[in-house]
Every structure is written in structure tokens, then in C-alpha cells.
């Protein structure tokens, strides 16, 4: 479970409040984070098979992170391509994949919380996840029409991510330790 927590910590790491992050540091931390989440899900899946529904999405995000890390490292990020060139279609499709990848963390969280729902009270975390999805979607829409509002929404999203991490640590990891302590006493 610690691997999943630290994985989310790496995935949620951002160096600015812009909607798009296109640096190698962003995709490098995503690669480390999703790898940790993968190994955490694999480990948890031995005890709770419903958690394994998350694994294909995590594998997709590992591949996504490797691909975009390579593109950013070589200076070919879809976010930095000129839209007036013949590469405009590729840039737009690439930008769509960037946005889908950014949203995928919330899908992974949803499946993970669904799998953990039998063992832990995940209602508040699910509400936080839904709020993060909503704010992310709104920030994406406002990015194209009012970047100032999008930047404010990304700041709110960062706050929600911190709240999620604290809640995940408290509900999942804190309860796991108390359950383990009761098992030792009983």
C-alpha cells in the first residue's frame, strides 16, 4: 500500500500551476509514480483480486509516460509543435493523448477505491476523486477560453490532490496499521 501512496505522490507532483506540463521532469515523475503504483497493485492483487482491474490502466500509463518522456526529451512534444505546419494534425492528436493521460490517474484512483471499498471506508476519497475529475475537466475547458481561470482551477486541483493524499494515508494506510495491530493482539 505504501508503494501506491508514493506512486500517487510522484504522479501528483507538478512544478507549476499551468494546465499543461510538458517537461521531462513531469513525465519522469509519472514514470516512477506509475511504476510504483503498478507494483503496489500487483502486490495487493494477491490478496484482493478486484484491485487487479486497475492494472491494465496503470500499464497503459507507464507506456504513455515512457513515450512522452522520450518525445519531450528529444524536443518533439506535441504541446510545442507549431499548429500552422503540416504537423498540426499530429500535434492535436498528441495533445489529446496528453490530456487523456492526465485524466487517466483519476480513472486509476476510481478503480482502486472501488476495489478497496470492501475493506476500507472509501466514500470521502471517492468524493474527492470525483471533485478532482470535475475540476480537471473545467480547467481543461477554461484553458482554451480563459487561461487565468484555468490556472486558478489547477491550483484548486493541487489542493484537492493534497487532500486526497492525506485522506488516502489516513484512511487506507492508517487503518491498515491499526488492523495489523489488532491482528497481533488478537
Q: Alpha-carbon distance between the termini?
A: 23 Å
Ranges where pLDDT stays below 50 over 5 or more residues in a row are 178-186
- What's the helix count? 6
Radius of gyration: 18 Å
Number of E strands? 0
Main beta-sheet annotation: none
Q: Can you write the helix and strand succession as a string?
A: HHHHHH
Helix fraction, binned, reads over 70%
Given helix and strand content, the structural type is mainly alpha
Shape: globular
Average pLDDT metric: 80
Number of domains: 1
Strand-residue proportion: under 5%
Question: What's the layout of helices and strands?
Answer:
Blueprint: H1 2-12, H2 24-45, H3 55-73, H4 88-116, H5 123-145, H6 147-185
Helix pairs in contact: 1-2, 1-6, 2-3, 3-4, 4-5, 5-6
Describe this structure in words.
The chain has 186 residues and is mostly helical. It has one domain (2-185). The chain has helices at residues 2-12, 24-45, 55-73, 88-116, 123-145, 147-185. Helix 1 packs antiparallel against helix 6 and helix 4 runs antiparallel to helix 5. It is globular. The chain starts with a helix and ends with a helix. Residues 178-186 have low confidence and may be disordered.
Amino acid at each position: 500500500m505504501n508503494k501506491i501512496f508514493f506512486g500517487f505522490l510522484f504522479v501528483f507532483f507538478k512544478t507549476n500551476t499551468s494546465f499543461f506540463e510538458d517537461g521531462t521532469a513531469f513525465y519522469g515523475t509519472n514514470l516512477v509514480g506509475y511504476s510504483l503504483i503498478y507494483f503496489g497493485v500487483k502486490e495487493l492483487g494477491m490478496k484482493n483480486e478486484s484491485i487487479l482491474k486497475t492494472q491494465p490502466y496503470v500499464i497503459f500509463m507507464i507506456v504513455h509516460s515512457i513515450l512522452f518522456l522520450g518525445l519531450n526529451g528529444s524536443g518533439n512534444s506535441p504541446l510545442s509543435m507549431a499548429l500552422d505546419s503540416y504537423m498540426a494534425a499530429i500535434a492535436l492528436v498528441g495533445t489529446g493523448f496528453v490530456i487523456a493521460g492526465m485524466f487517466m490517474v483519476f480513472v486509476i484512483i476510481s478503480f482502486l477505491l472501488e476495489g478497496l471499498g470492501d475493506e476500507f471506508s472509501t466514500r470521502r476519497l471517492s468524493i474527492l476523486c470525483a471533485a478532482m475529475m470535475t475540476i480537471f475537466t473545467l480547467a481543461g475547458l477554461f484553458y482554451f477560453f480563459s487561461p487565468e481561470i484555468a490556472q486558478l482551477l489547477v491550483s484548486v486541483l493541487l489542493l484537492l490532490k493534497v487532500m486526497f493524499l492525506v485522506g488516502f494515508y489516513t484512511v487506507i494506510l492508517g487503518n491498515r496499521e491499526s488492523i495489523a495491530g489488532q491482528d497481533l493482539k488478537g
